[in-house]
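Name: Carboxyl-terminal processing protease
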Amino acid sequence: MRNKLQKAGLVMTGVVAGVLISLNFSASADKATQAPLPVEELRAFADVFNAIKQGYVEPVEDKKLINHAISGMLSGLDPHSAYLDAEAYKELQVGTHGEFGGLGIEVGMEDGFVKVISPIEDTPAYRAGVKAGDLIVKLDDTPVKGMNLNDAVKRMRGKPKTDITLTIARKGEQKPVVLKITREVIKVQSVKSKVVEPGYGYLRVAQFQENTAQAVVEHLGKLAKGNELKGLVLDLRNDPGGLLHGAVGVAAAFLPSNTLVVSTDGRTEDAKREYRASPEDYLRGTREDFLKTLPQGARTLPMVVLVNAGSASASEIVAGALQDHKRAVVMGTQTFGKGSVQTILPLNASTAIKLTTARYYTPSGRSIQAKGIEPDIVVEESANGSSRRLREADLDGHLGNDKDPDAERKAKAASQQPAGEGSKAPAGDDEAASPHRFEFAGKDDYQLGQAVNLLKGLQIVQNKKQ
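Structure predicted for Carboxyl-terminal processing protease:
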């Protein structure tokens, strides 16, 4: 039996090596550092493959084994690389346009469990009380331990009006939290706005989708219509990110034309580039430039950007660009710290891989990977302080910060910072502390109140200068 396996393994090694060569396996790597194929490792892979095929208790399809191998290869790299099977790839494509089915949670994996990065605003998960940092340990009666992320997400997806029960391990809770949630078609309204006080506008970006930048311009037009705006609050709290060109477009609405917004750097040449406030970097295709309808004064209006530990990726790009160019005051708490770029690489018409291909940097060259954006003015979530929040530095296998070796320690210290001494956790982070769900721009929004107060102070200074 052992000899048969060894012989079959040698044959399989040759097959795998041949396939990799035919696919130009090493063509995408830096040509200066090309290495020969790892024959010993490929032989080990082939041995395991054949051992499963011949000796596993039940027959297993080749396709299933290969898919699992690809999935494990990617998920072992970092928390954001993944294999997208036909269903996951389709959901990704639909989700970037703002509509998909399910619960409304941004998730990752940690210690074999699904970890909630952030519930998306106005979704079933958000209304049910799912919180950033929750560990989902069971889906209905099925333990999550041992599932890969795609399988767990598939179970959470489903037809609208069907129920799923999440069993959650939550810091500070002695017993598991059990939540029964009804699935919905998730339609994320990525941009909202309102006049919070006469002369002061509020603009919230909940997620960066295909048309988010255009929606920002439209909402700015509505805010400016009939109002003499003296200041604007751009709210990026709990914004988990999204499309890169969407972030560039939003930043471009507030920065001078052709201003550097973000740069990326990776091993391949196409990963090394700059993104500027110019149509070729924020438009896709040949659409009309929506910034032509930008209200007068939008690029000079005094601004405060609100961020917190739920602000990640694309929202950190916007906050970092406006901060570096001194276009806005960044206020709130330290952001999540996801400073990496994921590229979707289709394998065929129905499947793809999501691969981390670069780190991104703010205009001044800062990397926020495993660090986050540090606010110009720290304002906690309530007058009593902030609750503990999950950040990139807390995720297993995260990339390090290549610019600041001490970034990870600082970020972990920030995520473990307790709420104000002797205080309860702020509204919105502890259901026991508040009988109602926290509402952004609601009457209990302490950070927004402080942002408006700052804008009023900036207006007074500006008037004195004039």
